[in-house]
Amino acid sequence: MKAAIITTAIAAAASAASANAAIRYAVHTYRHEGSAQGHCPDDEIVYGRTKTRSYVTQSNPSFGHLERGQYFCKKEADKERWRAAAPD
Fold this sequence. Notes:
Elements: H1 2-24, H2 33-39, E1 45-49, E2 54-56, E3 70-73, H3 74-79, E4 83-84
Parallel strand pairs: 2-4
Antiparallel strand pairs: 1-2, 1-3
């Protein structure tokens, strides 16, 4: 009986951890600018790195040129509290 309760508790904790991970990464990232624009046609597309949770706008010379960069929607990034990099 105790083993079943412990197993259930572990499974519940794992499910909660998975749900939290899904919520944390609610920013959809894309390898190509056009794909991101298709996801959010009425939003500004920005470019950044998921590791640092920062981005640059199209006016920044680094746009599209960051190592391991991804394209995504600015509103999604702002909602998840990503930060805009300082303009160059």
